[in-house]
Amino acid sequence: MIQTEIYQLIAFLLRNIGGSLGIALRNSFYRFAGAKIGKNVIIRENVIIYRPYNLELKDGAEIGFGTVISAVEKIRLGKEAAIGPYCAIYDNNHKMPKVSGDGGLITKPVEIKDFAWVGTHSIILKGVTIGSNATVGAGSVVMTDVPDNSVVVGNPARIIKQNAPKKEDVK
Ligand SMILES: CC(C)(COP(=O)(O)OP(=O)(O)OC[C@H]1O[C@@H](n2cnc3c(N)ncnc32)[C@H](O)[C@@H]1OP(=O)(O)O)[C@@H](O)C(=O)NCCC(=O)NCCS
Question: Under CATH, which number does the domain 2-161 receive?
Answer without folding.
Answer: 2.160.10.10
